[in-house]
Amino acid sequence: MWLVFPRTKAALNAVHARDGRATSANARSRARDAATLIDESGLLFACANRELVALLRARRWRELFATRRDEVAADVRAVAVGHGLLVKLRAPYRALTAHALIVDPAIDSRDDSAIDRAAAQLIGSPGFAPETLVPLPVAALPGWDTEGLGRALFDDVSVFRTAVLG
């Protein structure tokens, strides 16, 4: 994946190098925490459709991935980049959840170079932290429901949880 998205990987490495050892309990800054999450379980969610992105951020799973499934299939490019996520995808299960970095490519969600530039810019920006990532059960994505449950998939509220207000 990193050969296809080299700027993204370089930006992640830059966060790790820049922030070194922080004085936090886990010795990482908030940005390093987020970079680690992407390295481990990251997924680039490339989508220029602001309505779909808003539904993802609000965790309105059924509306986004069932009701508007055709739009998601047309407008979203989901790319697993985290090495732990990639390993788990060899034997996927319903609750397998990625940490999604929402990328608004300037041109087209199918353009790897545009996605790479946009993701790298987000990672290098001030405020990059775990809360900028969105948990995304990968089974929700079109074509990733290995159980073939369709709309019934979203009945499992232990996986498809609502957003926590706080």
What would you note in describing this structure?
The protein has about 170 residues and is α+β, with helices and mostly antiparallel strands. The chain is about 40% helix and about 10% strand. The chain has 7 helices and 4 strands, in the order ααβαααβαβαβ. A 4-stranded mixed beta sheet has the order 2-1-3-4. α1 (about 5-20) runs antiparallel to α2. The longest helix is centred in the first third of the chain and has 14 residues, at about 5-20. The chain starts with 5 loop residues before the first helix and ends in a 29-residue tail after the last strand.
Compact overview of the structure:
The protein is of the alpha+beta class and 166 residues long. 40% of the residues lie in helices and 12% in strands. Helix 1 packs antiparallel against helix 2 (30-41) and helix 1 (6-19) runs parallel beside helix 7.
The SSE order reads: HHEHHHEHEHE
User: First CA to last CA: what distance?
Assistant: 35 Å
Domain count: the total is 1
Strand order, main sheet: write it out.
2-1-3-4
Helix content: 40-55%
| CA-atom Rg in angstroms | 16 Å
Features:
166 residues, alpha+beta, 7 helices
How do the strands and helices of this protein lay out in sequence?
Blueprint: H1 6-19, H2 30-41, E1 42-46, H3 50-57, H4 61-67, H5 69-75, E2 77-80, H6 83-88, E3 97-103, H7 112-124, E4 134-137
Parallel strand pairs: 1-3
Antiparallel strand pairs: 1-2, 3-4
Helix pairs in contact: 1-2, 1-7
